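Re-running Oxidoreductase, NAD-binding Rossmann fold family protein to confirm reproducibility after the cluster update. Everything else is unchanged from the original entry.
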Amino acid sequence: MTNVVTEVAVFGAGRIGKIHAGNLVLQPGANLKYVSDINTQAAQELAQQHGAQVADIDSVLADASIGAVLIASSTDTHADLIMRAAAAGKAIFCEKPVDLTLERAKACARAVADAGVTCMIGFQRRFDPTFSALKTRLAAGEIGDPEMLIVTSRDPGAPPVSYIKSSGGIFKDMLIHDFDIFRWILEDEAVSISATGSCLTDPAIAEAGDIDCAAVTIRSRRGRLCQINTSRRAAYGYDQRFEVLGSKGMLQAGNHKPTEVVAAGAHHVSQDKPEHFFLERYRAAYASEIAHFFDAVVNQAAVRTTIEDGVKALELAEAATLSWRENRTIELAK
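Result of re-run:
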């Protein structure tokens, strides 16, 4: 890394914006100059915490000293901010999804390509130490050729129904991460996807037009299979794990727990439950992805999760949504 200071702005001062801002200010050579949010109080509090200024979107993008922006605002703002930041020549980190529609996400990808700027999408699971270690061992050939991927992805509880109504649904909001895991781990693309789902935890979710449990089967171009099961309710914590079956064996990536202490008594053996939620489970991953983004910006290197990855994951999410709604397998372009 060089010693040049890069000025950065954060759009969004909510919980994920706070996480990204906190990780950004730890990067050598990064300076958080602006925080922007329609919630001015939240923006002021976050800016004050890190010695930044509060500014509106126009002011941020008009400032030639801003080299990069972090987009952590609501999903419905992502596409517009990506396009405007790209046109202004800023490097971009944006939380998933790129947008809730595939057409607009593709338009964002074209805007980024035309501007020639860096754009990284926040699929933080690729940066999780456990998942990354599995990927490294898989790439080294430890279990031979991968043949099947089984992903378990369960939240401890559903978000408010008001959020669900504007989230794009379980496939675009939750499983989009798992669709990215499928592409990353198997290094393959889908040719068909079949999804089914139910609403078992809260009737209000069904009334909002969504489901809270889903099962998805994907077939890849190479004939590999991926099964994903998800639920918005896991009483025991945030359940995030997967396994890869290969021609020579299997690799498993398990949950993280607060401690690894196991207690054994006359009547039971116990250990800590998994980390409670995504902010705890992916604490290290969030730090690692921002470090990776900032390093790529400073050194003009490629990012690990591109806007094209965001488009591909959204394509699978849209296909899964259609499969569930129409109760049929969706064939994808080969």
